[in-house]
Amino acid sequence: MTTIQGLDRDGYIAREGSLDRVPPAFAPVVAAARERIAAAFAPDRLHSAYLYGSLPRGTATPGVSDLDLLLALRHEPSGADRAEADALEAALDGEFAQVNGVGVVLAGTDTLLSELERHDLGWFVACLCTPLLGEDLAARLPRYRPTSLLARETNGDLALVLPLWHERLAAATTEAELRGLTRAVSRRLVRTCLTLVMPRWGGWTSDLAASAEIFAGYYPERAAQARLAAALARGRTPDRAALTVLVHDLGPWLAAEYAAVLGVKAPRP
């Protein structure tokens, strides 16, 4: 039993996905992903595999939603592992019209279970990822509340990505480049808006429209920009002018406000 704020009855963030929620149209994609991951990554390389995003949440739309996978490896990812993952992405994306892109994230189990990643990648696995293959690492991780620590460690590094966004926006010349950047920027900003207010609000959601509205209740002067980001994240046609507003205005303000309210994420090697 969960509340509308994404918490279980004990006040911890509830795991948001389940294979039972995958829409029927995507069942063949998930089955193929499971089979091909097992074929490409032997048991001595692969510890476990997870599905995350709109598919296990049950909100995926055929032809619009992408397939998101996390592979937990028994060692830190190598160049050969990345090549296998790239081939897997291309094969699944090319075969199934239901998905609009496939992304495979690779991480070593030592990293996922490390103290440094306890409130970032660890939380991601335990709360946002749905087990697909192998032993579920969530059993070796704590339960999580919507605390300031969790907010800081998940999105307290926004300032580090802003220069890259500026460069990519200036260099983008094709619709495909703009579309990819728009999705990345808008999704990240909306989620950062949500985690900025998460400790005050006291809950969790991955719904982008809902996240923008929750944020708007605390920062009404930035509500229009948060709603714009949520709309761009769901759209298929990029808008350079709107993206420029997010990258050059909302992004820098959000990074500064985050640092002032919650602090900065612990540095990574």
Automatic annotation (TrEMBL):
InterPro entries: NT_sf, Polymerase_NTP_transf_dom. One of its GO terms (molecular function) is nucleotidyltransferase activity. Residues 48-78 form the Polymerase nucleotidyl transferase domain. Keywords: Transferase. It comes from the Bacteria. Pfam families: NTP_transf_2. This is Nucleotidyltransferase domain-containing protein.
